[in-house]
Amino acid sequence: MEGKKVAIITGGARGIGEAAARIFLDNGYKVSILDIIEGREFTKHSHDENDFIFVKCDISKEAQVKNAVSKTFEEFGRIDVLLNIAGVVIVKPIEEITVDEFRRVVDVNIGGTFLMIKHVVPIMKKQRTGAIINMASVSGHVGQVRHSLYGATKGGIIAFTRALAWELSPFGIRVNSVSPGSVDTQMLRDDVSGEAKRLGRSYEQVKKEREAEQAFGRWAEPKEIAEAIFFLADERASFVTGTDLLVDCGWVAK
Asked: Which class would CATH give 6-181+224-247?
């Protein structure tokens, strides 16, 4: 259907990214889903299969990013929204983090966001419009033990977002970020499992402590974060740029 807006979503095969893909499709967008794993099929009775594509892409590799952006543009003819959701986390004392682990976290969380923006922005500039939403975290706002490297990358995303909001504003492009608290995704479950193993405690014990960091004493569902992302991409947020939206159930406010 001609005239539909187009969103390109990294990390779109599961978690927050998958929830975002579904919300954008439900709201009439065409969606390009990028991930290193194969995405689950959106059934025909839920969504028109002509409205979305899957592109296997490691966002830390420029050739793959360039290919994914080109495929999206060739398929849909425009890119209105970029959601930089893909990311990795490492939970370790600083002295135990290897150089290879450091590089992987930085290359994905900051490097991947940079590469996606670098290759999508020329398209948005020609359109004179666009919305970019980057995935930050409460870890970019508060100090979390054994999350120093992850927090550093997310703090960098917040600073990157603010600078780009001004750099791209002459072209009608808005740039914002979202900082979730704890969200019930596979990445968080793996994170908690690893921490529990290192501490010699049960998964449920560590999970309960993590849940207590949110005012409502529970983890967010991915859809709750995706709804906030959609708001920032939507015209209802037309006067919002350079902002980091905390969706953390009061964590930072404590």
From this structure: alpha beta
